[in-house]
Amino acid sequence: MENKHGPLTEALFYILLAARRPIHGYGIIQEVAAMTGGQVNLGPGTLYGAINLLLERGWIVLYSAETGSRRKKEYVITPQGREVFAAELWRLRGMVENGKKMEEDEP
Fold first, then answer.
1. Can you give the pTM of this predicted structure?
2. Distances from the Cα of 15 to the Cαs of 25, 53, 106, in angstroms?
3. Cα–Cα distances in Å, from 29 out to 17, 68, 104?
4. Is there a contact between 50 and 12 (Cβ–Cβ < 8 Å)?
5. CATH fold for domain 10-102
6. pLDDT of 1-26, one tens digit each?
7. Phi then psi for 27, rounded to 5 degrees?
8. Can you list the residues of the chain whose pLDDT is less than 70?
9. Which of 29, 34, 76, 101 has most Cβ atoms within 10 angstroms of its Cβ?
């Protein structure tokens, strides 16, 4: 299982994870900060640059929802995005398993 675009950046990984359900940009920032205990804080420039890349690659799509009298842009992961995410998760799990060998070699 391989991602032809190479490893995902931390921002791309967490945006895809947050977009497992429709979510707007500020919601992504909040959810990523919450799920990482504040270790990952996406700034607006990083977020929207990454969102544009994900849209271009077809890994997320715009999911607009009416909210009262205004429209919010929400994003949701696509089946292709789920495949890319799964490949990255597989890669990361392999890295963790290999890293455990260091612990096993400790005296």
1. 0.86
2. 9, 11, 36
3. 12, 22, 37
4. yes
5. Arc Repressor Mutant, subunit A (1.10.10)
6. 667 778 999 999 999 999 999 999 99
7. -65, -35
8. 1-2, 64-71, 107
9. 29
- Judged by DSSP in three states, 67 sits in strand
Contact 86, 1 (CB under 8 A): yes
C-alpha dist (Å) from residue 77 to 51, 68, 100: 11, 24, 31
DSSP-H helix ranges across 19-106: 25-35, 44-57, 79-105
Q: Amino acid letter at 86?
A: A
Q: Check: CB of residue 10 under 8 Å from CB of residue 42.
A: no
Around Cβ 84, how many Cβ atoms within 10 Å? 23
> Helix crossing, 25-35 with 10-18: angle to 10°?
110
CB of 71 within 8 A of CB of 65?
A: yes
Name the residue ranges covered by the structural domains of the chain: 10-102
Q: Are 81 and 15 in contact (CB under 8 A)?
A: no
